[in-house]
Write a structure and sequence with these properties.
Blueprint (H helix, E strand, L loop, with lengths): L20 H9 L3 H15 L13 E8 L2 E8 L4 H8 L18 E4 L2 E4 L12 E3 L13 H8 L9 H14 L5 H7 L10 H12 L4
Parallel strand pairs: 1-5
Antiparallel strand pairs: 1-2, 3-4, 3-5
Helix pairs in contact: 1-4, 4-7, 5-7
Length: about 220
């Protein structure tokens, strides 16, 4: 976790379209909320996923009641369904990313009852009665970004943005758990989240400053 992002000033360079890289990628720190609004609306309108019992296509199924980002959902799910697939395919919350699907990259990190979990390794049925928070649920009801989301933008702590939702969710958990006593401790407790663009130094900066209330 020692690689620096090359080109410290490149965040404000504008492409020919006139849109700055920083402006474009800032939306990523919100976790693709804008991209997820339409699918979420369609899912609610077409399937009524929050209240309707939806039959699983096959295999053994269970009734599930789970609260996601403050909204209660009652569904019938295949017992083999992962929390990741439930969030993305049934609830149309696309901010949680599918990376390795083996628990090795951390791109799918969410909070279950306040604790960090890899959604790809968590069975949805194990979340009966639980409260799940995804990247879409971090902002306030008024639309104000979470302090760590703002810090990721301020410190340019992302490049391609694919791992960013998982990094932010893991960072929130890391701060709540009190594992921010030093930069070394932050790196250790964030080590389950992989950034293939090598933005680790800036990710640590964002987590460190947020933990100290400087964002």
């Amino acid at each position: 976790m020692s690689a620096n992002l090359p080109g410290e000033d490149c965040g404000d360079v504008k492409e020919s379209s006139g849109v700055s890289r920083r402006g474009f990628l800032s939306t990523t720190a919100v976790g693709g909320v804008a991209a997820g609004v339409l699918p979420s609306t369609l899912a609610a309108d077409q399937a009524g996923a929050s209240v309707e019992q939806v039959a699983a296509p096959g295999g053994h199924s269970s009734a599930l009641s789970v609260t996601v980002n403050g909204k209660r959902h009652r569904l019938t799910v295949d017992n083999r369904t992962s929390l990741l697939d439930l969030l993305r395919e049934r609830l149309a919350l696309m901010g949680t990313k599918k990376g390795c699907d083996q628990g090795a990259c951390g791109a799918c990190t969410v909070l279950v009852d306040g604790r960090r979990v890899n959604a790809c390794l968590t069975l949805a049925v194990r979340c009966q009665g639980a409260e799940v928070t995804t990247i879409e649920g971090l902002a306030s009801d008024e639309g104000d970004l979470h302090a760590l989301q703002r810090a990721f933008i301020e410190y340019d702590a992302f490049q391609c943005g694919y791992c960013t939702p998982g990094q932010i969710m893991s960072g929130v958990g890391c701060i709540r758990e009190g594992h921010t006593g030093s930069r070394e401790e932050i790196r250790e407790w964030m080590s389950g989240n992989i950034c293939r663009c090598g933005c680790y130094v800036k990710i640590v900066n964002a987590v460190e400053q947020t933990a100290r209330g400087r964002s």
